[in-house]
Write a structure and sequence with these properties.
Radius of gyration of chain A: 25 Å
Strand content of chain A: 25-35%
Number of strands of chain B: 4
Shape of chain B: elongated
Number of helices of chain B: 2
Structural class of chain A: alpha+beta
Helix content of chain B: 10-25%
Distance between the termini of chain A: 27 Å
Number of helices of chain A: 11
Strand order of the largest sheet of chain B: 1-2-4-3
Structural class of chain B: alpha+beta
Strand order of the largest sheet of chain A: 11-12-8-7-1-2-3-6-4-19
Order of helices and strands of chain B: EEHHEE
Distance between the termini of chain B: 18 Å
Strand content of chain B: 25-35%
Shape of chain A: globular
Order of helices and strands of chain A: EHEHHEHEHEHEHHEEHEEEEEEHEEHEEE
Helix content of chain A: 25-40%
Largest sheet of chain B: 4 strands, antiparallel
Largest sheet of chain A: 10 strands, mixed
Oligomer: heterodimer
């Protein structure tokens, strides 16, 4: 029985780099490699892919990643836990089983964890009295968008992963478990923990560890306010958690890699995308980030201790994705001299064009790239010098694709009817909007299942 | 000449639905009280104008010299439907560093 287990973060989002995950497997002496691929929008994109092809719906890069990682993991005795199953973990598991056979990884056990996909259960939930009210806006007008729903996935806890590991899985593939469940599940399995009051603080600590490292390089120098001080970020190391049975843990990274772990890189991610830090509510429990203590105990080593936790929340978060119209956008650049004046006149011209074309839009946004695109009203107008160049961006939200396409057409028409010297990239095509409706459901409505496949 | 928050704090921001969260971290323990004085719901709301349409909450984390700003209805409808280029609010958080440091007894 180990008293400390080593969990490496292998991916922070769909699109993250593969080489640091492979490096952690080679150098990190990992017990687990935990990989997050999913975001709110991802589930809707994958659900659309599955509608076109019933064998799709998992992360398209998953097999190519595992072609590299599974042999390394077998060599280092590391188990892989990932949520790359998306909306079709079973198809992902079957694909990885075939891949393992192809790679000669005989006997490799791949476990599929399901139970988060509620798309076929929405009407049943409504019939059972779940109001599915929007937890942000408190709107209960769900019925108006029922017909537009394209995805519905509930953030599930780590118990399915824990059970899969108890079944001897070498690779666990899940759907929409919470990001930190990828870490909580293995920790609970290794230490034989259950979701009870006695373990609430330690599970709170596991949730905290998961939160700190789940975005991979985001706690080893990536996104840092001190990015200019971070060494060799192109060779950044992904984080490793050394988690102790007593609930304390150390955040570190493989030796001889780029980036840095210090109290600030950990603080920067502790405060990331959270609400009340004393009540970080996750499917596995509630962690109190205001109770913890950070200590720099060596180069690239930060110890975290004292986390307090409370037990399981009664509700789980269900994110429903639904089709919600279109966005059309365009970008035009203007050169010195008088770049800003040209952009202002072009904005006026576009406004007139939209009127002439009869544009019907729910919302329209103009911004000057180089002045106020990112900070909006917070970028108070100061005196604008004669800039080298400036961009004018326009975006509109419409009900139909043809309305959104009027934005592209009007911007293209500026090629000749606009200010001299205007420069364009490739015109942007309208894109469909999948909006999200976050709601809460009773956790008793959710059951996870585990299926093991062997190569 | 008054100082701005950019001289005493680091920042990291992101989204949850239509909410934008901004973590503001004091560069030194000595700066933390000035960060707390300077980052208030009213000052934050005034800074962002009509880009923030819902309530603003500020949570203090005395253990790590940081505050968390939680701004509702602040992303133009959420990452997937906002018209802004900064769809997940990653850049927006840096705007909070424009706030002037509120004077006080250190």
């Amino acid at each position: 029985m180990k008293d400390i287990i080593r969990l490496g973060s292998g991916s922070g989002f769909w699109g993250d780099a593969l080489d640091p995950a492979a490096e952690s497997l080679r150098k990190g002496r990992l017990d687990y490699l935990c990989m997050d691929y999913l975001a709110e929008l991802t589930m809707a994109l994958l659900q659309r892919a599955k509608l076109k092809d019933p064998q799709a719906g998992y992360i398209p890069d998953l097999a190519e990643h595992m072609r590299v990682l599974m042999p390394l993991a077998r060599a280092s005795g590391t188990r892989i836990v990932c949520n790359g199953g998306g909306v079709n973990p079973r198809a992902a598991g079957e694909r990885l089983r075939k891949l393992a056979v192809e790679l000669g990884l005989t006997g490799l056990r791949i476990a599929v964890v399901e139970g988060d996909d509620m798309i076929d259960r929405i009407d049943g939930l409504l019939a059972a009295g779940e109001p599915l009210a929007n937890m942000e806006t408190e709107s209960d007008a769900f019925s108006a968008l029922r017909g537009a729903v394209v995805a519905a996935n509930v953030y599930t806890d780590g118990s399915g992963i824990r059970d899969a590991l108890a079944d001897g899985a070498d690779v666990v593939v899940t759907g929409r478990v919470s990001d930190n469940a990828l870490y909580v599940g293995p920790i609970m399995h290794e230490f034989g923990w259950v979701h009870d009051e006695d373990h609430a603080d330690r599970i709170g600590a596991a949730i905290t560890a998961g939160h700190i490292v789940e975005c991979a390089s985001a706690c080893t120098g990536g996104m840092s306010s001190r990015f200019d001080e971070m060494p060799r970020m192109g060779m950044v190391g992904f984080p490793i958690v050394e988690f102790s049975r007593d609930g304390s843990f150390v955040v570190t990274k493989p030796e001889d890699t780029g980036g840095m772990v210090d109290a600030f890189t950990v603080k920067e991610h502790l405060v990331y995308e959270i609400a009340d830090p004393a009540n970080y509510v996750m499917p596995d429990g509630i962690a109190d980030f205001t109770s913890l203590r950070l200590e720099e105990i060596g180069p690239d080593r930060v110890r975290v201790s004292g986390v307090r936790g409370r037990g399981l929340p009664e509700k789980l978060k269900l994110v429903i994705g639904y089709q919600d119209g279109w966005i059309g956008e365009g970008l035009v650049l203007f050169p010195w001299p008088r770049a800003y004046e040209r952009a202002v006149k072009a904005r006026q011209t576009l406004t007139e064009r939209f009127e002439r074309l009869g544009l019907v839009a729910d919302d329209l946004l103009f911004s000057f790239v180089g002045l106020d695109t990112l900070h909006g009203p917070a970028a108070k107008d100061t005196e604008i010098p004669d800039l080298n160049e400036i961009g004018l961006r326009v975006a509109a939200k419409t009900r139909s694709r043809s309305e959104a396409d009027k934005i592209r057409r009007a911007c293209t028409q500026l090629w000749i009817m606009g200010p001299g010297g205007s420069a364009f990239g490739t015109p942007t095509k309208p894109r469909p909007v999948v909006a999200v409706w976050p709601t809460l459901i009773d956790r008793a409505a959710v059951t996870q299942t585990v299926t093991v496949m062997e190569a | 000449m008054s100082r701005t928050l950019s001289e005493i704090a680091y920042v990291r921001s992101g989204d949850k639905g239509d909410t934008v969260t901004i973590g503001v971290i004091a560069r030194t323990h000595a700066d933390y009280s000035a960060v707390k004085r300077s980052v208030t719901p009213d000052r934050v709301r005034a800074l962002f104008g009509d880009w923030v349409r819902g309530p603003v909450h500020v949570y203090e984390m005395d253990n790590i010299d940081s505050v968390v700003v939680y701004m509702e209805a602040a992303l133009g409808g959420g990452a997937t439907r906002t018209l802004r280029l900064d769809q997940t609010g990653k850049a927006l958080g840096n705007a909070i560093l424009r706030l002037s440091v509120e004077p006080g007894n250190e």
